[in-house]
């Protein structure tokens, strides 16, 4: 989808807020739908806005790849042979990073009356961002190269990252995975996609987040045809991210084996997520997004509150 606004179209020094406004105006349906869904869900959620947390000292940690010289606490580092970074509580416990799969497979919809997987995932991501901002959290698009923020600026940045993101994907399917980005310890990631890449690749990627102390939540968005395989008779299947063609005489004969294969694939991802204390949920595009959004927000809120609980001796 080509938008009237493209990154870099404005002259150097153009205000990011003006760019995001232009983007939001270019695609009002998805933004408006996300705000409507967020408003509906918010009616059943108590507000959680807080003050005074942003600059509270959390801990010192060792300097690692991705940090800059400006991040180093030189006074503390002078007492050791190692470099240390001073983390504040907002960095350690409050940031939520959101990723939506932008690969070609997400453009699929089996019926013109259904949204594509990408559109539904985008709406879920934007609605979640709106709820988190209302609750006082800081958010950022995963892989967007921007720091977490709050308020209208954060919402616009998220819309910009999701709605103007380039299409990714290659024959290996690895571009369908979230980026292996370095994040602050105790941050949370929300990963929304169809997760049809090899289960071992998905498991390896989320284990990489967990090793850095990051908690995560996965939502697998699928079209109903991808779950039910409702086709009958002579059917030709074409690959979206690969140049594959399969002609089947009686497609209904594949249904049982296909469902078993899909269940096995999903079970492997769920088990990998369970082992590292990530959550995993499935959402179909023929169902209302409100339930999935409420469950996801509840999981995020519970984890954030647990992180903020008083620490022993604190």
Task: Describe the model.
This protein has 314 residues and is of the alpha/beta class. Helix content is 39%, strand content 16%. It is built from 10 helices and 9 strands. The chain has helices at 16-26, 28-42, 74-77, 89-93, 117-134, 151-163, 199-211, 224-228, 255-275, 290-308, and strands at residues 57-62, 84-88, 95-100, 138-141, 188-193, 215-222, 235-238, 245-248, 279-284. The strands form 3 sheets. The chain has a 5-stranded parallel β-sheet, sandwiched between helices. Strands 1-2 form a two-stranded antiparallel ribbon. The longest helix is centred in the C-terminal third of the chain and has 21 residues, at 255-275. The chain is globular. Mean pLDDT is 76; it is low at 1-14, 23-27, 46-54, 89-93, 169-174 and 310-314.
Layout of helices and strands, plus pairs?
Blueprint: H1 16-26, H2 28-42, E1 57-62, H3 74-77, E2 84-88, H4 89-93, E3 95-100, H5 117-134, E4 138-141, H6 151-163, E5 188-193, H7 199-211, E6 215-222, H8 224-228, E7 235-238, E8 245-248, H9 255-275, E9 279-284, H10 290-308
Parallel strand pairs: 3-4, 3-5, 5-6, 6-9
Antiparallel strand pairs: 1-2, 7-8
Task: State the secondary-structure class.
Answer: alpha/beta
Alpha-carbon Rg, integer = 21 Å
Low-confidence stretches: 1-14, 23-27, 46-54, 89-93, 169-174, 310-314
| Shape call | globular
Q: Biggest β-sheet, characterized?
A: 5 strands, parallel
- The spatial strand order of the largest sheet comes to 4-3-5-6-9
- Compute the number of strand runs: 9
- How many helical stretches? 10
Helix and strand pattern: HHEHEHEHEHEHEHEEHEH
The percentage of residues in β strands lies in 15-25%
Estimated helix fraction: 25-40%
What's the mean pLDDT score? Answer: 76
Distance between the termini: 51 Å
């Amino acid at each position: 989808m080509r938008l009237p606004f493209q990154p870099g179209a404005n002259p150097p020094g153009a205000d990011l807020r003006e760019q995001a406004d232009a983007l939001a105006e270019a695609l009002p349906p998805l933004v408006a739908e996300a705000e409507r869904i967020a408003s509906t869900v918010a009616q059943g959620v108590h507000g959680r806005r807080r003050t005074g947390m942003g600059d509270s000292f959390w801990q010192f940690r060792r300097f690692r790849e991705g940090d800059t010289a400006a991040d180093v606490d030189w006074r503390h580092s002078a007492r050791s042979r190692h470099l240390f970074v001073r983390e504040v509580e907002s960095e350690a416990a409050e940031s939520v990073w959101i990723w939506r799969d932008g690969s070609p497979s997400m453009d699929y919809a089996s019926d013109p009356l259904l949204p594509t997987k990408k559109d539904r995932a985008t709406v879920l991501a934007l609605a979640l961002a709106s709820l988190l901002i209302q609750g006082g959290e800081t958010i950022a698009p995963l892989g967007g190269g921007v720091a977490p923020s709050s308020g209208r600026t954060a919402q616009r940045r998220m819309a910009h990252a999701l709605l103007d993101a380039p299409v990714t994907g290659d024959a290996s399917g690895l571009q369908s995975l979230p980026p292996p980005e370095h994040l602050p310890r105790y941050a949370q990631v929300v990963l929304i996609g169809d997760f049809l890449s090899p289960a071992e690749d998905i498991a390896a990627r989320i284990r990489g987040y967990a090793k850095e102390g990051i908690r995560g939540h996965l939502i697998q968005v699928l079209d109903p045809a991808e779950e039910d395989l409702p086709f009958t008779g002579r059917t030709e299947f074409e690959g979206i991210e690969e140049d594959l063609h399969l002609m089947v005489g009686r497609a209904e004969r594949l249904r049982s084996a296909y469902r078993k294969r899909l269940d096995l694939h999903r079970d492997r991802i769920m088990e990998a997520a369970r082992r590292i204390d990530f959550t995993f949920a499935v959402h179909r595009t023929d169902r209302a997004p409100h339930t999935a959004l409420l469950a996801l927000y509840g999981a995020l809120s519970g984890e954030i509150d647990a992180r903020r609980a008083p620490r022993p001796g604190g």
